[in-house]
Amino acid sequence: MLLNPDRYWWLMPTSMILAFFWQFWPLGQTIRQFGPDAIVMVMLYWALRKPQHVSSGWALVIGLIIDTSEGCPLGVHALAMVVIVYIIQLMNERIRMFAIWQQSMVVGALYLIYLFICDTALLLDTHNNSKSVMMLTALSTGIGWPVCYLFLQWLEQGTQRGPIRS
Q1: What's residue 34's pLDDT?
Q2: Structural domain boundaries enclosing 100
Q3: Does any domain span residue 102?
Q4: Between vectors from CA 25 to CA 44 and to CA 84, what angle results, nearest 5°?
């Protein structure tokens, strides 16, 4: 039994706000470098599940908020977010048919594209990230995808309880 989709209109913005809290929670630098990117995972989840509600325009807005939060030049994360959401929208039906472990590999590859765009745009800035750290962050984002996907899907569909039998 699927619940009324209009009943949970608040779930998408709330999950994005919680992803921002997760992403910008003050943790150690080593933990932050190897942790998954919650904002990208939540954005990709909603772009897969509700492509009619999440467009490149929303990706641009979320990317600009990330830019202002991190103190990057405006448009760096916005461009990267728009590109990966566009790729997700192009391959939406194909990716939704994949098993969750295959989706993890796609999300990891998309996050590598995201990091490549961000690092290329920040090449002249003082941004100094090692390529091995980029790979580990993409790996942790890919590994974290099933947890993010299953949790948001559980919230979106609600808990389905069967009848009590005695």
Answers
A1: 79
A2: 37-157
A3: yes
A4: 20
